[in-house]
Amino acid sequence: MEIRKLQEIWKDHFNSSGEQLKKMAEVNGLISAFNANIDAVIKISGEKIEKIIDEFGLNPDHLIQDNEQSIRSVEDAIRGLIRCFRGGFAEEWLIEEKEVFEWLNKNIGYDKLQMGGQGGIVANVMATCEVGNVYVHTASSPKEQSGLFQDLPNLQNVDLNGELKKAYEIDRHEDIPLIHWIIEFDKNDKLNIGGENIVCPKSNRFIATYDPLNFSLTIDQAFHKKMSEPTKTFEYIILSGYQMLKEKLNDGRTGTERIDESILAVNEWLKNNPDSLLHFEIASTRDKVVRKYLVDKLAPKADSVGFNERELIDILEVIGEEELAGKCDKETSSSNLFEGMLKVFEYTGCSRMQLHMFGLYITLQKKGFRVTPIQNRNGMQLAANIAATKAGTGAIDSHEILLWSKDKDVSEVGLNELTALSEKVSELFGNNDLCEKGIFTDENIEIIAVPTIIIDKPITLVGMGDTISSISLVAAR
Questions:
Q1: Tens digits of residue pLDDT in 409-427
Q2: Which structural domains are found in the chain, ordered by start?
Q3: At what angle do helices 464-474 and 373-393 cross, to 10 degrees?
Q4: Do the Cβ atoms of 430 and 436 come closer than 8 Å?
Q5: What is the sign of the dihedral through the CA atoms of 130, 134, 139 and 144?
């Protein structure tokens, strides 16, 4: 079927977005944990990168090496930026030395400060979508951090006295600010390094993080105590923030111990709300020991797991699927990635997982999962609308703006990826009408796929995956 006809079909499907947004107000409670921080955001050009290299005498040969993905020097920070610029992908590297953080602050600067951390971003978008009683966990919440939460009564955190209060108004003045650098770059921008001309294939960002509290997944005990009370009710727990853990932490503990402690905390929350849906958002976790432990221990306990292309490839690398990981890395297509999803689905036993890739969202779940295929599709379509709104306007800080993109067509890129997915599903499971309906089911699995709206020159891409995953699930009603 021709692209224009498919776009008309999907525009009709997307008409459900307004109704799904209204349904989000029916959710009576949600916990978003564990990480929130302050993001210092700047858009940088290839020309600016060249000037930094020249001004500080950085070695071009070192900057193009594919070494360990951590930051112990200024050269490491620029090396990570160039790697993401060259590939058009997003990665987060951890700053090991405070001096590098201070150098970035002095020499790179920022265009704006905004909410950072999956937990904080999810809390803000859920509150804006009018979910009732959004409880957000913060390891640190001084005034600078709290002021980045939406000024809404349904968004709550614990204050200095351990009592729930509007998150925007809290000032735990003894807490330290936790700041991350988000360095964004544009598609088709150019960079010359060591005589090599690099053209950026896709708009994206590089994240350089210095955050000692979230590095060790610090859990605020006052928040934990509140969420464990019998009077607290909620329907969803969205977990994130594990990606900064390492096998060995600076305080002598291990990353796996911190994961176990977080699971114990979540189990306490679930005692009084056993029917809550637990979603785990996997981010780019560099430490392979931690990554494997998350896949082995946390993912199987979750009802739902979310990841992007890079994160899926990273998972495949630690579950014995290195060959398929390499195949997906070489050709990051929906058909290859779907094969990867099937492997992770089988390995973890998790009931539902969602991939958000460029142009297409794919949900794979067990037959009879309590969120039906049509509910999933409707939730994913709303997520696509809100994600496009965020990319196109730069912020989703009011309820009125959320459906800004509602009249835009789904992308040709997305429809081409959907067609490739349909062909792969035909090969593996039989004939389907994924291209027209976005849903395929058999006696064992349910596949839901939604092409997305692509904004050619996005104002921001920060927190896009977290926004997509959380809305896709919570709006699936």
A1: 999 999 999 999 999 999 9
A2: 1-26+305-477 (3.40.1190.20)
A3: 150
A4: no
A5: positive
Please check whether residue 362 is in contact with residue 334, taking contact to mean a CB–CB distance below 8 angstroms. yes
Per-residue pLDDT reduced to its tens digit, 293-340: 999 999 999 999 999 999 999 999 999 999 999 999 999 999 999 999
Round to whole Å and give the CA distance between 294 and 291.
5
Q: How far, rounded to the nearest angstrom, does the alpha carbon of residue 347 sit from its chain's CA centroid? A: 22
Phi and psi torsions of 335, nearest 5°: -65, -45
Nearest C-alpha neighbor of 364 from the set 337, 401, 400: 337
Q: Are 193 and 65 in contact (CB under 8 A)?
A: no
Residue 228: Cβ within 10 Å count: 15
242 token code pair: 């594990």
Give the long-range contacts of residues 395-404, CB within 8 A, separation 24 or more.
395/114, 395/460, 396/125, 396/128, 396/467, 397/124, 397/128, 397/150, 398/128, 399/128, 399/129, 399/130, 402/21, 402/128, 402/129, 403/17, 403/18, 403/21
CA dist., res. 47 & res. 191, Å (int)? 6
- The per-residue DSSP string of 279-345 comes to EEE------HHHHHHIIIIIGGG-SEEEEEHHHHHHHHHHTT-HHHHHHHHHS--HHHHHHHHHHHH
- CA–CA distance, 390 with 309 (Å, rounded to integer): 20
- The residues, ordered by sequence, that sit 6+ positions from 399 with a Cβ below 8 Å of its Cβ are 128, 129, 130
Statement: the pTM of the whole predicted model exceeds 0.85? yes
